[in-house]
């Protein structure tokens, strides 16, 4: 599903070395990969590169067989809209939309008809066990619940790739485990490829594979 | 996109109701004022044009003379010419109606000539009145508007005044062709000449040319017959002259409305700018979710357009309401006296309504343009980081600011365009732009100066000003424009009022003033009347004043000839030249500033004035300031005027009292002697007070608009601080954890609000002074051709500035209050 070859990124052209280079990664449909690494090594940057939110200096990114490196900003935006799902550490649930509307947001961007969008968002909320609160406002929810809404939103439009940057970073360990379990399960169920950045060894252990990012590239974590 | 557009963008307007309501109100106000002014003037000009066409009828050329009239021998000469098929003589009199306030326009016409030239003016006798009643003296025919206004029906008697004598006219029928909006009366010309004591005089002759005669050709060949001061004009040219008179006034009101609309656009800008800053993370996240740059920009522009459309539609409705109200209260000339005797009707005009609604949309879109561009330029990867602080661009823009100031300086030197100070208004816009552009630089400079304070609150406020000047700049910018305009108007009005007061003192040196009617109407004082007043006990001396309206050439509107005692240096408010000048071969005349601007005359020039059918040459001895006649006035000494022109009538009488005489007693004696229905007497103090009251009333609309602009600016500060306080909840929660009391955080906000307002007010006052200079020296001079002495109401402006800063502090504090009501713990944990 996702194939990355010899990806390199440097912020400062004058710096002696790139932030990272020689990054290779293959993720199959229904597979979830965890990426770990020291703070500041560039994990978030790598995810941003995969999403086209950050430019890359060299290398190739292929999603569903299509080369993405070099796409312009708008083309990438349209691609993100249909093929990507995101889960953020800070949730980013819009406070002025109900839970159902938050989940339906990607469908709105895709111009899915109102009725269908509502139906699919409802089904997705049911999947994360929040069906009863579809018309509730985000301010009444706990962090774990908010992240479940975010998971529903990341998958509602059946993306090919789900990117999650420390999705449990703002949650206590007990809740984190449950949310992570839900995320992995849902991604596998949807047949998407999942890339997850985390600091938590416990979280990483639940993924199908664990890779460590260094300046020289990605290597399997023993 | 549509669902997203509706729910993410348009719905956000509802989430900040205060800011939205203010932007809407500002746009609606601007649109409404502009539309109302246009509707009123369109209707008035329309009716005015109809009146001119009615009078012109089917004529090809018009012979127009001074208000005093010209010899009717000219009529016979013209009628006999082969080029002329038909000629219709008219004596037009603005008849004073004794005991009533206004006057009535009476046309003395040759009934047998009307059908061929002005059929619409034909009088139609009422039932029971003879066929040839129109030829009888003592009868008048009133148009529908006139009879309705005067409350007279056929058979009733209308009293008119000539000199100080009352005459009775019997209403004998109507003028059905005049239409509903024209208040006028028609009577036989010979009867009118006799009644108004103008034997053998006409004021106009309308000509229909023989078939096959070209108009220009006829104009040239007939011009040779005309005595001086009488001109031959095409009807359109005459109409254009008169429409030109009110143009500058109309443009000025339109500009005020444009300024209100500009303030609206500015408010949209500042609220959108702050909303964009606050919604940065939301936008970054939407971009991550796949919203294109252009989609984001479109969404934000749609917000602005929606605001503009709603405001515009509200404004169109409000504008019609305002226009209807203005028609009811002050009539079609907005109290300026340009369109007396017209009763225009308000109509809904789809095209202007649509155009003004579109202007509202344009203001909304223009206001959102920069914020939308900024939002589209945002880098999502960076903005998504939690610590990213909304950074509003506040780099100093000195180059742009100086360029605008330079442009303003150049523009203020350019002449008027078609009588309208276009460049002057552009200069005002450039000064405002320069002020807004200078604000970031000034803020940065002030931030450096303020670094000295040591108190914690002061340090925090300063740190914020230094680190995030953008928010201060945007909040302050909302104040700059409104303060600049308010200060400019205050300075201009203050200068104007003081100059006017001074002028009145110069023009009204006597103790009492007596008049039979306004100078345009049919009341006048003859020598016997003047002598009678002079003989009253307590009167030391009387000085008659005579006004006549004359035509100096065929291109420009008539000017006023003012004859009064001009002997000593203080007798006229001179700005150039002298009263006592070495004797010359020619008698002396003093011209008003408008004559300099409009006729290109200067001190020392020779000026030919038509007087009693001859051209009389004068030497221009000086230039005086005239606030009463913007189309130009020539002043000559009364004795010279009477000797040269043989006209011994007077319009006003200046009465000087003996020491110890009681003004009220003398006034009463004069009224008793001359008839209380026919003359008015006022003390100099009363005339001055009335003039200043009229002045204040005519600027009332301006004051109200100023107040609205300032309130909107203040509200801008309040909304921006409310928005900022919401965004800074976390910061406040943190400060509460560190041990700050709510009161201290309130004071911090008040301090920041006061700082933002003080910066805006300071820059606004400076810009206001510059705008005032342009208004006084360029806009007023070019629009109305009068100068005034600049005078800054320093105390008032200082108070205004202090109140504004205090209100801003209060507004910022109140706006922050609700943000601080949340428990500190919740605020710190809160992500939004
Ligand atoms: N726009 C940028 N310009 C310059 N440097 C940047 C930019 N964005 C990130 N960096 C730098 O790149 C490095 C990698 O940042 P990144 O956020 O990807 O690290 P990370 O591995 O996600 O760290 P953490 O685990 O703490 O989240 C950091 O040193 C950061 O300062
Ligand atoms: Mg990171």
TrEMBL record, chain A:
CDD domains: ABC_MJ0796_LolCDE_FtsE. One of its GO terms (molecular function) is ATP binding. InterPro entries: AAA+_ATPase, ABC_transporter-like_ATP-bd, ABC_transporter-like_CS, ABC_transpr_LolD-like, MacB-like_ATP-bd, P-loop_NTPase. The keyword Transport applies. One of its GO terms (cellular component) is plasma membrane. Residues 2-222 form the ABC transporter domain. SUPFAM superfamilies: P-loop containing nucleoside triphosphate hydrolases (SSF52540). It comes from the Bacteria. Keywords: ATP-binding, Cell membrane, Membrane, Nucleotide-binding, Transport. PANTHER family: IMPORT ATP-BINDING PROTEIN, TRANSPORTER, PUTATIVE-RELATED. This is ABC transporter ATP-binding protein.
UniProtKB/TrEMBL annotation, chain B:
Coiled coil: none annotated. Residues 255-376, 708-822 form the ABC3 transporter permease C-terminal domain. The chain crosses the membrane at residues 253-277, 306-331, 351-372, 398-416, 422-451, 472-493, 700-727, 748-776, 796-816. It is a multi-pass membrane protein. Residues 20-224, 477-671 form the MacB-like periplasmic core domain. One of its GO terms (cellular component) is plasma membrane protein complex. InterPro entries: ABC3_permease_C, Lipoprotein-release_system, MacB_PCD. GO terms for biological process: lipoprotein localization to outer membrane. Signal peptide: none annotated. Its main location: membrane. Keywords: Cell membrane, Membrane, Transmembrane, Transmembrane helix. It is found in: Cell membrane. Pfam families: FtsX, MacB_PCD. Belongs to the ABC-4 integral membrane protein family. LolC/E subfamily. This is FtsX-like permease family protein. It comes from Pseudothauera rhizosphaerae.
């Amino acid at each position: 599903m996702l194939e990355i070859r010899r990806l390199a990124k440097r912020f400062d052209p004058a710096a002696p070395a790139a932030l990272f280079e020689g990054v290779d990664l293959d993720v199959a449909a229904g597979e979830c990969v965890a990426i770990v690494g020291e703070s500041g090594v560039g994990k978030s940057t790598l995810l941003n590169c995969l999403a086209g939110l950050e430019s890359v200096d060299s290398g190739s990114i292929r999603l569903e067989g299509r080369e993405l490196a070099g796409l312009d900003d708008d083309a990438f935006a349209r691609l993100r809209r249909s093929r990507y799902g995101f889960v953020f550490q800070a949730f980013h649930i819009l406070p002025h939309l109900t839970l159902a509307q938050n989940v339906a947001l990607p469908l709105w961007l895709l111009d899915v008809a109102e009725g269908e969008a509502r139906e699919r968002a409802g089904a997705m909320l049911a999947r994360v066990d929040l069906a009863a609160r579809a018309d509730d406002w985000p301010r009444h929810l706990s962090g774990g619940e908010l992240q479940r809404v975010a998971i529903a939103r990341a998958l509602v439009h059946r993306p090919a790739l789900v990117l999650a940057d420390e999705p449990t970073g703002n949650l206590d360990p007990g809740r984190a485990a449950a949310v992570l379990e839900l995320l992995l399960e849902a991604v596998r169920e949807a047949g998407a490829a999942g890339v997850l950045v985390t600091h938590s060894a416990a979280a990483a252990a639940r993924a199908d594979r664990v890779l460590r990012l260094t300046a020289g590239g990605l290597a399997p974590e023993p | 996109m549509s669902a997203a557009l509706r729910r993410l963008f348009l719905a956000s307007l509802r989430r900040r109701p205060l800011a939205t309501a203010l932007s809407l109100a500002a746009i609606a106000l601007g649109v409404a004022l502009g539309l109302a002014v246009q509707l009123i003037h369109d209707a008035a000009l329309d009716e005015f044009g109809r009146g001119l066409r009615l009078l012109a009828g089917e004529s090809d050329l018009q012979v127009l003379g001074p208000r005093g009239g010209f010899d009717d021998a000219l009529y016979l000469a013209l009628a006999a010419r082969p080029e002329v098929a038909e000629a219709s003589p008219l004596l037009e009199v603005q008849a004073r109606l004794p005991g009533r306030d206004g006057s009535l326009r009476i046309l003395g016409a040759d009934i047998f000539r009307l059908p061929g030239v002005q059929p619409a003016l034909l009088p139609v006798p009422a039932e029971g009145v003879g066929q040839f009643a129109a030829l009888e003296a003592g009868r008048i025919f009133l148009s529908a508007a006139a009879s309705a206004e005067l409350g007279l029906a056929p058979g009733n008697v209308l009293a008119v005044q000539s000199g100080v004598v009352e005459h009775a006219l019997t209403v004998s029928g109507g003028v059905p062709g005049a239409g509903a909006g024209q208040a006028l009366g028609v009577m036989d010309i010979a009867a009118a000449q006799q009644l108004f004591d103008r034997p053998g005089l006409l004021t106009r002759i309308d000509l229909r040319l023989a078939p096959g005669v070209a108009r220009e050709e006829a104009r040239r060949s007939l011009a040779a017959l005309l005595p001086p001061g009488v001109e031959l004009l095409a009807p359109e040219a005459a109409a254009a002259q008169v429409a030109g008179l009110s143009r500058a006034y109309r443009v000025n009101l339109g500009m005020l409305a444009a300024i209100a609309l500009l303030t609206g656009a500015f408010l949209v800008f500042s609220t959108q700018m702050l909303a964009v800053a606050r919604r940065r993370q939301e936008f970054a996240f939407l971009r991550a979710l796949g919203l294109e740059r252009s989609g984001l920009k479109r969404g934000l522009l749609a917000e602005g357009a929606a605001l503009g459309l709603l405001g515009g539609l509200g404004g169109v409705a409000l504008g019609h309401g305002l226009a209807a109200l203005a028609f009811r209260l002050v009539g079609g000339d907005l109290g300026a006296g340009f369109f007396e005797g017209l009763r225009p009707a308000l109509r809904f005009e789809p095209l202007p309504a649509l155009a003004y609604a579109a202007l509202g949309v344009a203001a909304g879109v223009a206001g959102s343009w920069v914020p939308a561009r900024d939002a589209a330029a945002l880098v999502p990867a960076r903005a998504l980081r939690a610590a990213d602080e909304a950074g509003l661009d506040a780099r100093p823009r000195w180059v742009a600011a100086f360029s605008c100031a330079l442009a303003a300086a150049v523009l203020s030197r350019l002449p008027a365009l078609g009588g309208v100070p276009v460049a002057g208004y552009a200069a005002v816009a450039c000064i405002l732009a320069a002020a807004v552009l200078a604000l970031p630089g000034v803020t940065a400079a002030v931030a450096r100066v303020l670094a000295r304070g040591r108190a914690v609150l002061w340090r925090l406020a300063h740190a914020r000003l230094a680190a995030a000047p953008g928010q201060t700049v945007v909040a302050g910018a909302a104040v700059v424009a409104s303060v600049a305009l308010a200060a400019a108007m205050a300075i201009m009005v203050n200068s104007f009022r003081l100059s006017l007061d001074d002028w009145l003192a110069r023009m009204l040196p006597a103790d009492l003033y007596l008049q039979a009617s306004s100078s345009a109407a049919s009341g006048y004082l003859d020598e016997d009347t003047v002598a009678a007043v002079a003989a009253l006990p307590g009167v030391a001396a009387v000085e008659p004043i005579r006004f006549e309206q004359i035509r100096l050439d065929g291109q420009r509107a008539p000017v006023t000839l003012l004859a009064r005692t001009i002997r000593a240096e203080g007798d006229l408010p001179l700005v150039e030249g002298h009263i006592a000048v070495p004797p010359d071969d020619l008698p002396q005349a003093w011209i008003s500033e408008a004559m300099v601007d409009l006729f290109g005359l200067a001190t020392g020039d020779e000026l030919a004035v038509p007087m009693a059918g001859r051209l009389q040459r004068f030497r221009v001895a000086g230039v005086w300031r005239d606030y009463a006649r913007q189309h130009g006035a020539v002043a000559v000494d009364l004795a010279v005027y009477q000797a040269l022109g043989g006209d011994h009538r007077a319009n006003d009488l200046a009465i000087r009292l003996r020491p110890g005489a009681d003004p009220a007693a003398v006034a009463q004696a004069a009224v008793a002697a001359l008839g209380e229905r026919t003359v008015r007497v006022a003390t100099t103090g009363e005339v001055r007070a009335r003039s200043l009251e009229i002045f204040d009333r005519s600027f009332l609309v301006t004051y109200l608009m100023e107040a609205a602009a300032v309130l909107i600016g203040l509200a801008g500060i309040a909304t921006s601080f409310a928005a900022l306080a919401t965004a800074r909840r976390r910061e406040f929660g943190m400060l509460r954890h560190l041990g700050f009391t709510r009161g201290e955080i309130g004071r911090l906000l008040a301090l920041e609000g006061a700082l933002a307002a003080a910066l805006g007010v300071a820059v606004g006052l400076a810009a206001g002074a510059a705008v005032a200079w342009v208004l006084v020296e360029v806009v007023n001079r070019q629009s109305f051709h009068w100068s005034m002495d600049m005078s800054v109401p320093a105390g008032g402006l200082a108070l205004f500035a202090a109140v504004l800063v205090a209100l801003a502090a209060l507004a910022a504090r109140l706006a922050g209050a609700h943000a601080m009501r949340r428990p500190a713990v919740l605020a710190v944990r809160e992500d939004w």
